[in-house]
Design goal:
With 1008 residues, the chain is an alpha+beta fold. The protein contains 37 helices and 22 strands. Helix 35 links the parallel strand 18 and strand 19. Helix 2 runs parallel beside helix 3, helix 5 packs antiparallel against helix 6 and helix 29 packs across helix 31.
């Protein structure tokens, strides 16, 4: 009975080994036959390599189960004869090799692990140690790995003896080890297969390092549903590496040896392409083929390698295919290609080859999703009959089309006109335009250089790469709110190092050593006198932080940021934790710095201002906000040096407050997201823009009460002005209001913009205008009716909001004092005839002012200032695009303002404050604009200084800003409908134009 049972178990083990479990798994998950791929092995490594991750995992699980079953069966049937369990693994492995065409190593390893864990673990550790020693001897590669694998098998009997002390078990293990080693020697090795022996498909997710940028991008497009021809990638080979390295070393010794090294590399390439690979490719693409390069760095983000490597086609036979692959690979080592890579600082690595069906093109060409000269809104199409190589080759002048896609109606007109003078009809052009825009959108707004082909029925995408000269990308997202409007040189020379320095410090905290090599001074720039942030640099930082790819779309298109994948963000968790600790400590650190640095600084500045005023007999209390002298009391270089030292000291104080001013709002936004606190819950009474308006409203209410009798309901502006002039108490209150809030301006971050204190007549007029309205809107404190949980969540955010408002106030006060210091310097310069008129100083950079004062020389900035003033005037009137590609603004002509800006006459923005209003537009380029009555204010931005103006509007339309901008907060507080982020609103709309503003939907509808 025992012998019969043993015989049955042996037969069952052989039969179990013969089942093609791994082959079935690969067929199910990838529809591939492993017997026809690679070495023909049907093993676990082949399943991963040729079938993909899911097929490989399924194969591993199947082989683990197959190895465990015989051991469990042997131990169950013969508990007193454990040797039977090892013996049963021998026919299992034999069946795996003879019938199922596998190696059996996975089965044996897991079988031994179940039989005796110490034996299996000891063998594994021994194999790893041998592998490490072999790598030190032979270097990394397949030879060391195979040697370690075979030693691990052959040494297993020794560990069986060491742990089990059983001669039968030792002999059984020896028989199993010899069988595994023999199979290992006789079988091909898929893991050791040169990468040139593997075939990847464009249907797979490809690794750029293995298959090159060109193939990887085409794979992304094909899997996303774009019309990309099928294709197979022959990766660069690993074998022959020794000859390649030798060749590279010889190239450094001189031209002769460089050529010798290159020949060695080419020979290595030729020797590593097997007939089975060529036959496999020919079976996959039976008709004509084209062989194309896909090198590392080719069609990359910073280099295109256009024209550096060969494309060969059409290819008909297997012999032609082998020759084409070799010629393509050899083109990687031409002198021109090597020089190109060295100039672009690209490492000499390896060449993958892409093989695709040859498209019989009726028309082919290239197109740019944006104007490659300046990134303008024109799709450029160049085409010729036949293949695209004629266009890119530059030997023939192609048909050249430019299609402006800025608005639908502009797009429609050229399509009709181009059809008459083109080699293809309107439908094909429209399809190309659609494809260009879709591919750019797919690559997150990065402009693309696209090679295409039309076979008479369908447009095929043959290649897509970034337009490398349109880099970096610059975005107004965020920048438009941080420092909006046209910016003068002095403002920028102070703000840029402050802003870039603080952002650089924050990113260094998160990235740690990974931040080395990043130039944070390039975080921002001026284009057309407007601030832009470096979306390319920020996008790279986002990727390093593990944030989702939509991060670039957020910067370029204002799209929402997706949730970061946990696996990618893990490396940044320590840095994010450090940043979180800083954010948590912000309140305490700020309060400490407020007491030790900022309040003493402001007191000293106010004393200096007060001392200057007292010299004119106009003494003020020390706690009041005091402006410098309108005239320079001592126009000499000693006094100028004192003023320069004050300006430098203020900038030193601005560094820490700028850090708080950036990190504070970030922390508040994160807290609101974590605790799910909506904007409506927040109490913004302490915000300067809210507090100032409320105080002015209360004063307007008092003025109206003083001017109007009980029987009167309307009152004239003249009577209100007379009442104000004849009431010292009201004048004193107004003066006190200016003393408290006079540091504010239209743009809090722009020291070139006058503060409220400098233009009292504007705000006196606004006060009278507010008093004229019978229903002065005094907003009472709201009662929210929150439950305990909601109050707790609100408290977590409200404290930070209060600190944020304190930070904003100190930041704005320091900037105001910096402005007033420069005004004193300018007054001295006017007296010394260095400047010609008021405001000239703001057209100089701070370094130029330092050099002038410290040199003590007589200088004239007349020509410099005139040139910069003219440039700023022109930049104020030109359309400013939200994104600039490269370092040049698009050469766009000023478009005539039409009644309809789109097919539906609706402009979409960001909803900021609910409500729906119809009315007439008033373009307000400055906060001192006379708004009039019942007007819809259209503004370029909404800083705190705009609050008094916006209060008189029936609705607000802003070119930039979001739901957390100053204008949006004011609008919600006073229930004024508002829409933010309507690009070019001040130029697309006109005074008196009737519109409908919907603050809930975020739309502006043109009604005439």
């Amino acid at each position: 009975m025992s012998l019969l049972t043993i015989a049955l178990l042996l037969a069952a083990s052989f039969s179990l080994g013969a089942l093609p479990l791994t082959g079935w798994a690969v067929r199910v998950f990838s529809s591939r036959d492993l017997r026809a791929l690679g070495t023909g092995n049907v093993g676990v490594s082949a399943a991963f390599i040729h079938g993909g991750k899911l097929a490989g995992i399924a194969a591993v699980l199947a082989e683990i189960a197959r190895g465990i079953v015989p051991v469990l069966a042997g131990r169950f049937c013969f508990p007193d004869a454990p040797v039977i369990a090892i013996v049963l693994l021998i026919p299992l492995v034999a069946g795996r090799y003879a019938i199922a065409r596998g190696g059996g190593v996975t089965n044996a390893v897991w079988g031994l692990l179940v039989f005796s864990p110490p034996v299996a673990v000891s063998s594994g550790i021994w194999g790893i140690l041998v592998w490490g020693l072999a790598q030190r001897w032979w270097g990394e590669g397949d030879r060391a790995r195979l040697f370690a694998s075979r030693c691990g098998c052959l040494c297993t009997p020794i560990w069986v003896w060491a742990w089990r002390q059983s001669l039968p078990e030792f002999l059984a293990a020896a028989g199993l080890a010899v069988l595994l080693a023999a199979i290992n020697f006789s079988q091909g090795d898929d893991m050791g297969l040169s990468k040139s022996e593997q075939l990847f498909s464009l249907d797979d997710s490809l690794d750029v390092a293995i298959c090159g940028d060109k193939a990887a991008k085409l794979s992304q497009l094909k899997r996303a549903g774009f019309n990309v021809p099928a294709g197979f990638i022959l990766p660069s080979q690993e074998e022959g590496r020794g000859k390649k390295e030798e060749g590279r070393r010889k190239k450094e010794e001189g031209r002769r040896k460089k050529e010798e090294g290159r020949r060695n590399e080419e020979i290595a390439d030729r020797l590593l392409i097997s007939n089975s690979v060529i036959q496999n490719l020919k079976s996959q693409i039976p008709n004509r083929m084209i062989v194309r390069s896909s090198a590392a760095g080719e069609d990359g983000d910073i280099s295109s390698a256009a024209g550096q490597y060969q494309t060969i086609g059409p290819v008909f036979t297997e012999a032609e295919l082998l020759d084409a692959i070799n010629r393509c690979r050899q083109s990687y080592w031409t002198a021109e290609a090597v020089d190109y890579r060295h100039q672009r600082q690209l490492t000499d690595t390896q060449m993958a080859v892409l093989i695709q069906p040859y498209i019989d093109s009726k028309i082919a060409g290239v197109m740019f999703s944006r104007n490659p000269l300046d990134g303008g809104s024109q799709i450029i199409i160049e085409a010729l009959p036949g293949g695209a190589e004629s266009v890119v080759g530059g030997q023939v002048t192609p048909v050249h089309l430019e299609i402006d896609f800025s608005t639908p109606e502009i797009l429609e007109k050229p399509l009709s006109a181009l059809e008459k003078n083109s080699i293809f009809d309107k439908k094909v052009i429209a399809e190309l335009v659609k494809q260009a825009q879709a591919i750019e959108a797919f690559f997150h707004g990065i402009p693309q250089d696209i090679e295409w082909s039309w076979d008479g029925e369908k447009v095929w995408i043959l290649q897509s790469r970034p337009i490398t000269n349109l880099q970096p990308f610059w975005t107004r997202t965020i920048a438009a709110e941080v420092i909006p409007g046209a910016i003068r040189p002095l403002t920028w020379s102070i703000n840029r190092p402050l802003t870039c320095g603080v952002w650089g410090e924050i990113f260094k905290v998160v990235l740690g050593d990974r931040a080395i090599g990043l130039n944070f001074n390039e975080t921002a720039t001026l284009l057309g006198s407007h601030a832009y942030f470096n979306a390319t640099l920020l996008g790279e930082i986002f990727r390093m932080m593990g944030l989702p790819e939509q991060g670039l779309e957020f910067l370029l298109r204002g799209q929402k940021m997706g949730k970061p994948p946990l696996g990618k963000i893990l490396p940044s968790l320590p840095g994010l934790w450090r940043l979180g600790q800083r954010e948590r400590a912000l309140n305490a650190e700020f309060k400490g710095d407020r007491t030790s640095i900022f309040l003493p600084a402001l007191q000293s500045l106010e004393k200096e201002g007060g001392r200057g005023k007292k010299e004119e007999g106009r003494g003020k209390k020390e706690e009041e906000i005091l402006m410098p002298n309108a005239q320079c009391p001592m126009p000499n270089y000693q006094y100028l040096s004192e003023l320069l030292e004050r300006a430098e000291q203020i900038q030193e104080w601005l560094k820490p407050i700028t850090y708080y001013n950036i990190l504070g709002p970030i922390g508040l936004a994160i807290r609101k997201a974590i605790f799910r606190v909506p904007d409506e819950w927040m109490d913004n009474d302490s915000a300067p823009e809210i507090a100032s308006v409320r105080a002015l409203q209360q004063l307007a209410h008092k003025l109206r009460q003083a001017a109007v009798s009980q029987s009167e309901e309307t009152i004239s502006v003249a009577h209100l002005a007379q009442t104000f002039a004849e009431t010292p108490a009201l004048q004193a209150e107004f003066e006190k209001w200016l003393e408290i809030y006079g540091y504010l301006s239209e743009v809090g971050t722009d020291i070139a913009v006058p503060t409220w204190r400098e233009q009292p007549e504007v705000y006196q007029k606004l006060l009278i205008s507010m008093a004229q309205k019978a229903d002065v809107n005094l907003v009472k404190k709201r009662k929210l009716g929150l439950n305990f949980s909601q109050k707790w969540r609100l408290d977590k955010c409200q404290e930070r909001a209060l600190v944020k408002n304190e930070i904003s106030e100190i930041y704005a006060r320091l900037l105001a004092h910096l402005r007033w210091t420069f005004l004193e310097i300018e007054a001295c310069g006017l007296a010394m005839q260095v400047f010609q008129e008021s405001g000239d100083i703001f057209y100089l950079e701070f370094e130029e002012i330092q050099q002038w004062i410290r040199s003590g020389a007589s200088v004239s900035f007349k020509d410099t200032i005139r040139e910069r003033r003219d440039r700023l005037t022109g930049d104020r009137d030109r359309p400013i695009p939200p994104v600039v590609y490269g370092n040049l603004l698009p050469n766009s002509q000023k478009r005539a303002i039409e009644l309809a800006t789109s097919a539906t006459n609706i402009m979409q923005g960001i909803p900021a404050s609910i409500g729906r209003v119809e009315g007439f537009v008033k373009i307000c380029r400055t906060a001192s604009t006379d708004l009039g009555e019942n007007a819809i204010a259209v503004v370029p931005y909404t800083d705190a200084g705009w609050a008094p103006l916006l209060l008189g509007a029936t609705a607000i339309i802003a070119e930039v800003g979001g739901q957390l901008s100053h204008g949006a907060i004011i609008a919600r507080e006073y229930k004024i409908p508002a829409v933010m982020n309507i690009p070019e609103a001040t130029t697309r709309l006109r005074d008196g134009q009737k519109v409908r503003v919907d603050g809930y939907l975020g739309t502006v509808e043109l009604l005439e």
